[in-house]
Structure formats: structure tokens, C-alpha cells
Specification:
Blueprint: H1 2-8, H2 10-20, H3 27-38, E1 46-48, E2 51-53, H4 55-92, H5 100-113, H6 116-122, H7 132-137, H8 142-167, H9 171-212
Antiparallel strand pairs: 1-2
Helix pairs in contact: 1-2, 2-3, 2-4, 3-4, 3-8, 4-8, 5-6, 6-8
Length: 215
């Protein structure tokens, strides 16, 4: 993903944020890395549809690409929800990673926060990708939905891109050091799966021993 962002610049930011409005596409990583690219620490210039920009112009470009891409994806998600309704999601929700359980949680979320569920959801990691379609399903008013999405979406893009800009030259060091976290996570998963497999085999062995043993 970071390689794609580095190669295609704001176009990649736009497309990935568009997708993230419908189901998770790591918008946190997208905007932070886009901000690091805009800072000039990782590349001398940023591609903006064939134009090359640097400095503050590059930062504004990645923020606008993120905001516009996500906003258009959010509008599409709302339209899918309003047109298809809950029956459509119950049949096809897995296309958007919206299982019946997630849809139930989304309904509780909207029931708790009402219209403000859109704004709160847009600044909540992961949950922000499961707001658009349910908002349409639960008939959130389009105008209010767009305004609240734009506010939360803009805050998200501005803050994360600024964090990436601040990281700047330290990105390479951060990315290298994070490999140790990846290794630790993978090792933990392997250990957990191994333990689970041993637990499953042990009762079978004990049952087999009980059957074969003399009474």
C-alpha cells in the first residue's frame, strides 16, 4: 500500500479513502503515510495528476484527496443503504464486511447516538468504515449526513496527515522498528494456534486411551 501511495500520489489517496468509506482500507495508514510523503522526507515531490508539488501545497493536496475521496465513497454507501434497505444487507452484507452481527451493532449505535452517530463514527477507527451503508438503511437525512460526514472526515484527514508530516524523516526508522512488533504478533499467533491444536488433540487421545484400556 505504501509503495502504491508513493508511486501514484494523490490518486492513490483518493481511491483508497473512497474504498475506506465502504469497508476498511486502512485509512489511518493511508493518511499518515500521505502526510509523510507530502513533507518531502520520503520523496522530493508529490505527484498530483501529472503535476509535481512540494511543501504546504503537497500537504493540502493529500488532505483534499482524502476528504473528497472519502466523501464520495460515503455518499455511495448511503445510496446503497437507502436503496437496498436492510433486506439487501442481510442477503449481500458480506460484500461490504457487514455481517448480521455488525448490522445489529450499527443499529444500536444509531439508536444510541441518533444523527450524531455519523459524526462520532467518522472519527472512530475501524467503525468509521461501517457507518455509510447503515446510515442509508436507517434513513439518516441526506443533508445532515453529508455535513456531519464532512466534518468528521475533514478532522480525520487533517490530523492524520499532519501526524505523518510531523513524522517526516523518522518514517523509515519507525517502519523498520515496527517489524519487531510484526514479528512478535506473528509469534503470538503461532503460539496460540499451536496451543489450541494441542488442546484439541489431547482430549481425543485421552478418549482413545479410555476405550483401549482393559476394564
Amino acid at each position: 500500500m505504501t509503495s502504491w501511495l508513493a508511486h501514484y500520489g494523490v490518486l492513490a489517496v483518493f481511491l483508497l479513502m473512497f474504498v475506506d468509506a465502504l469497508f476498511p482500507a486502512a485509512s489511518e495508514l493511508v493518511m499518515v503515510y500521505a502526510g509523510a510523503l507530502a513533507s518531502g522526507a520520503l520523496t522530493h515531490q508529490l505527484d498530483v495528476l501529472g503535476w509535481h508539488v512540494t511543501g504546504l501545497s503537497a500537504y493540502i493536496a493529500v488532505v483534499l484527496a482524502g476528504v473528497i475521496g472519502y466523501q464520495l465513497g460515503a455518499i455511495l454507501g448511503w445510496w446503497i443503504g437507502i436503496r437496498g434497505g436492510r433486506p439487501f444487507l442481510e442477503r449481500r452484507g458480506r460484500w461490504f464486511h457487514l455481517t448480521p452481527q455488525k448490522l445489529d451493532r450499527a443499529e444500536q449505535w444509531f439508536g444510541r447516538w441518533d444523527s450524531w452517530a455519523v459524526l462520532v463514527g467518522r472519527v472512530t477507527p475501524v467503525a468509521r468504515s461501517f457507518v455509510s451503508i447503515p446510515a442509508g438503511v436507517f434513513e439518516s437525512p441526506f443533508a445532515r449526513y453529508n455535513v456531519l460526514t464532512l466534518i468528521g472526515n475533514s478532522i480525520w484527514c487533517v490530523v492524520l496527515a499532519a501526524a505523518g508530516w510531523a513524522l517526516g524523516a523518522n518514517w523509515a526508522t519507525l517502519h523498520h522498528d515496527f517489524r519487531w512488533v510484526e514479528i512478535a504478533v506473528v509469534a503470538g499467533i503461532v503460539a496460540a494456534v499451536s496451543y489450541w491444536m494441542l488442546r484439541r488433540r489431547r482430549p481425543a487421545t485421552m478418549r482413545s486411551g479410555n476405550v483401549d484400556s482393559p476394564r
